Amino acid sequence: EPCGFEATYQELASAVKEEYPDIEIESRLGGTGAFEIEINGQLVFSKLENGGFPYEKDVS
Question: Which NCBIfam families match (predicted)?
Fold first, then answer.
């Protein structure tokens, strides 16, 4: 778990996948402390901008 966000990522990915079963989800490792969520190329959440992790309601 290089970035320390794996558990959070998996939890959110599961919630989104449950809501949208046909969605494709991917993760990319980075060293900046970023945790960003994009849908169809549009940024819908950024940890760097919001100062914390998203809740399920933020991404579903």
Answer: CXXU_selWTH
Domain residue extents for the chain: 6-59
Report the SS3 class of residue 6: helix
pLDDT in tens, the chain (60 residues): 445 677 888 888 888 888 888 888 877 766 677 788 887 788 888 888 888 887 777 766
> What are the strands, taking DSSP E only, across the chain?
36-39, 42-46
Q: Nearest-5° angle of CA 15, CA 8, CA 16?
A: 15
Look at domain 6-59 and name its CATH class: alpha beta
